[in-house]
Specification:
Blueprint (H helix, E strand, L loop, with lengths): L1 E6 L4 E8 L3 E9 L1 H4 L7 H23 L8 E7 L3 H18 L3 E5 H7 L12 E6 L4 E8 L2 E7 L5 H11 L6 H9 L24 H16 L1 H6 L2 H27 L3 E5 L6 H12 L4 E3 L3 H4 L3 H12 L25
Parallel strand pairs: 1-4, 4-5, 6-9, 9-10
Antiparallel strand pairs: 1-2, 2-3, 6-7, 7-8
The structure holds 5'-O-[(R)-(carboxyoxy)(hydroxy)phosphoryl]adenosine and zinc ion.
5'-O-[(R)-(carboxyoxy)(hydroxy)phosphoryl]adenosine binds next to helix 5 and helix 6.
Length: 343
């Protein structure tokens, strides 16, 4: 069975072909970085326009790399939310047109479900149940994953997402967009323990996050830094980046392990764009191991937004008989609790 998976939730246009729910034949991602870079963040109207321009060529390239044609597709899976309204619309309406004109079934997928299940694109699969830490530019949540389609939110950010904090801190340090990769790179030559940026633990037992405070703390520190020559002699930009990164990772690692301990679930899956961060991958894996918890992390190409994870989540729904109606609409705010449970 060939499934076309489509994700246009934010600023990447992605189409993938998945065979029999597991084998990725192609996973084409058209990044809009060049368009948004100068603005230090994603501009929704420009993102939508870019998706319109790119959806057909990206789908065409996905068929080509998979060495199949549009006639071979058995079903189409598409992200219907959460995400940017104008971006989501492009993917959903392309999927609808394909489903109608080719007489093939369509399913709609929650973008977060895609991230949560992205680990199944890898050889080494986790057992159910597991704790999923989903960290991206738009989301930071800890989920309890009981099975395909059975998710419970244990904690989430009350303000900025972790990736958003990386992006905003990079912007204020004048490092460009997206912030995560550049901050990670600079941190390699910095000292993570020289500036004590605040860690928001939100109470001893809380699994919720808050990252707006640290962003403000870095901003205030940097203002002082620019005016203080003595400080500039002892502290580098790399130190600021590394100390910020360390503070964010401390909180992410602590809360994810706490979620595992509280639920007694000793498997953790890391997902989303921030999961590309090698320091986070390393720290979570090491600290969890010392607590007897096993950590699974997808390869970076499946951490950032991609069509393959949507095809995989869609496949699980298709084989259970789920079908989307062609009248379905986008859901820019689409909490995981609203996901239809499996038939
Ligand atoms: O999952 P994703 O591609 O898109 C969303 O759904 O948001 O995640 C993008 C986010 C951006 O905020 C970016 O700065 C962050 O992931 N990111 C990283 C790294 N690579 C990407 N954050 C920290 N370290 C990285 N290496
Ligand atoms: Zn995402």
């Amino acid at each position: 069975m060939y499934i076309l998976g489509i994700d246009t939730s934010c600023d990447d246009t992605s189409c993938a072909i998945l065979k029999d729910g597991k084998l990725v034949l192609s996973n084409v991602i058209h990044s809009q970085l060049k368009v948004h870079h100068q603005f230090g963040g994603v501009v929704p109207e420009l993102a939508s326009r870019e998706h319109i321009r790119n959806i057909l060529p990206v789908a065409g390239e996905a068929f080509k790399r998979a060495k199949i044609t549009i006639n071979h597709i058995d079903a189409v899976a598409v992200t219907s939310g959460p995400g940017l309204m104008g971006s989501l619309l492009v993917g959903l309406y392309y999927a609808k047109a394909l489903s109608y004109s080719m007489s093939i079934p369509m399913v709609t997928v929650n973008h977060l479900e895609g991230h949560i299940l992205s680990i199944f694109l890898e050889e080494d699969e986790p057992p159910f149940p597991y704790i999923a830490l989903t960290v991206s530019g738009g989301h930071t949540s800890i989920f309890e994953v009981r099975d395909y389609g059975r998710y419970r939110t244990l904690g989430q950010t009350l303000d900025d997402a972790a990736g958003e904090a990386f992006d905003k801190v990079a912007k204020l340090l004048g490092l460009g967009y997206p912030g995560g990769p550049v901050i990670e790179r600079l941190s390699e030559n910095g000292r993570g323990d020289v500036i004590k940026f605040p860690r928001a633990y939100m109470g001893k037992d809380s699994l919720d996050f808050s990252f707006s405070g640290i962003k403000t703390a870095v901003s205030l520190y940097y203002k002082r830094y620019l005016e203080d020559k003595a400080l500039q002699n002892s502290i580098t930009i790399e130190d600021i980046a590394a100390s910020f990164q360390e503070a964010v990772i401390d909180v992410l690692v602590h809360k994810t392990i706490l979620a595992s301990k509280k639920t007694g679930i000793n498997t953790i899956v890391l997902a989303g764009g921030v999961a590309c961060n090698s320091k986070l991958r390393e720290r979570l894996t090491d600290e969890a191991r010392s607590e007897g918890i096993k950590v699974f992390v997808p390869s970076p190409q499946y951490c950032t937004d991609n069509g393959a994870m949507i095809a995989l989540a869609g496949y699980q729904r298709i084989i259970k008989g789920e079908r989307a109606d062609l009248s379905e609409d986008v859901l820019p705010k689409y909490p995981i609790e609203k996901i239809p449970s499996f038939l």
